[in-house]
Specification:
Length: about 400
């Protein structure tokens, strides 16, 4: 046998383990100090009551012979696909039930979708970047080209026709930068992909944070996207499903190449390698789209949005440059005083006992930047902002 030696080309990610080690060392040295964490991208509010009630009912269904469910459709139950299709229709995106594939979250499908594409394709990813896009392609031995996201382009790189690419990753609102593309900007990307015969893999995991109508909630709001894009979305941040696991992928019927249909290939791939998301979880996810579910998740998203605003307002007061904060749960700030990402991490930990994520961990262009998340509690967020203000206004 031979292993896939591409695995030896994946760079080790020490980002979160280094953060954990540094925080643990600091706490051991200063046990009386209360450390506030605005570093991780996980939600903290529990599932909405409508979701919990749907989960309970589905569990009860599994207990009765008449309502018990075994294997379900690999691509998801109709009741959930129809609810997702309705979600798209509301924002003027024409997405049919058969184009929606229910998944156990965006991360799995972002990796699995690569089964559809030849290893010779060139991949274009932004830098800084959510590391999954890079690592999954390194595993497959694909060539990766980077596009620079910097403060000059507000961390929203635009197409460069001198660069040839086959698979383009866009994430909006972005992790880690919080920056979000306008519909007009995304149209430029769709035109570029069409001109190059490329596909856009569009990660919309944070779309629910968008309030500004000029920004895109889905790439399928953009004319022409149906023949050049696949969209990944998730209940994780929208409804607190990070531990419950459910998401979806949209593969439009028009996306085709060399006589092959991406939609048919993905259906074949899923029915071959995947046996579907648990019925119970899909019932919980469908409850997100009921009137009660919607009102309850809107309240939770509003809570995180308010946290993001607290952070953003604090930075504005300090005159610190940042992206995100509005239309995103992430705030991406320029480290003050020309500090490097890790230097600022240490400075903030030691002098304010606040933990964030050094931008350098997301790519070369992240150096000198820092990510704070709005997923913590109101109390922790407010206190962290006060501490940062006190420290940096000195
Ligand atoms: N895409 C982005 C940009 C993310 O930041 C995350 C999680 O943090 C995911 C996808 C993964 O989402 P899921 O929980 O649906 O797998």
């Amino acid at each position: 046998m031979k292993f896939n030696t591409n695995y030896s080309n994946i760079s080790d990610s020490y980002l979160f383990s280094t953060i954990a080690k540094k925080v643990a060392a600091y706490q051991a040295a200063c046990p009386d100090k209360k450390v506030l964490r605005l570093g991780i991208g996980d939600v903290t509010l529990p599932l909405a009551p409508a979701v919990i009630s749907a989960l309970h009912s589905a569990v009860d269904e599994m207990a009765a012979k008449e309502t018990f469910r075994g294997y379900g459709p690999e691509q998801g139950y109709g009741f959930l696909k129809d609810a997702v299709a309705g979600y798209y229709a509301e924002r003027g995106a024409d997405v049919k039930g058969d184009e929606i594939f229910i998944s156990d979250g965006a991360k799995s499908d972002l990796g699995n979708i690569l089964d559809l594409f030849d290893a010779c394709n060139t991949v274009l990813v932004p830098d800084p970047v959510y590391p999954v896009y890079v690592d999954t392609n390194v595993m497959a031995g694909r060539k990766i080209a980077y596009m620079n996201a910097t403060s000059q382009n507000n961390f929203l790189p635009m197409p460069d026709y001198s660069v040839d690419a086959d698979i383009i990753y866009l994430c909006s609102p972005n992790n880690p930068t919080g920056a979000a593309y306008s519909k007009a900007q995304l149209k430029e990307w769709v035109d570029y992909a069409a001109a190059k015969g490329a596909v856009i893999l569009y990660d919309a995991a944070y779309e629910c944070f968008i309030t500004d109508d000029s920004l895109a909630r889905s790439i399928f709001q953009i004319e022409g996207a149906r023949s050049c894009a696949i969209e990944f979305c998730s209940f994780s941040k929208m409804a607190g499903f990070t531990g419950t696991r459910c998401g979806w992928t949209v593969v439009p019927e028009e996306l085709a190449c060399g006589g092959l249909s991406a939609n048919k290939m993905w259906l074949r791939r899923q029915t071959t390698k995947f046996n579907g998301v648990p019925y119970i979880v899909q019932r919980g996810a469908a409850a997100v789209f009921t009137p009660e579910g919607r009102a309850q998740i809107a309240e939770n998203i509003g809570y995180y949005r308010q946290n993001a605003k607290l952070i953003a307002d604090g930075l504005k007061e300090l005159g610190i440059w940042f992206t995100g904060g509005e239309n995103s749960p992430y705030v991406w700030l320029k480290c003050p005083g020309g500090m490097g990402s890790w230097q600022f991490f240490d400075y903030l930990l030691e002098n304010a006992q606040v933990v964030g994520t050094p931008g350098a961990g997301f790519g070369v262009n992240g150096e000198g930047f820092f990510r704070l998340t709005a997923f913590g509690s109101r109390e922790v967020t407010a206190e962290a902002v006060e501490r940062i203000k006190r420290l940096l206004s000195k």
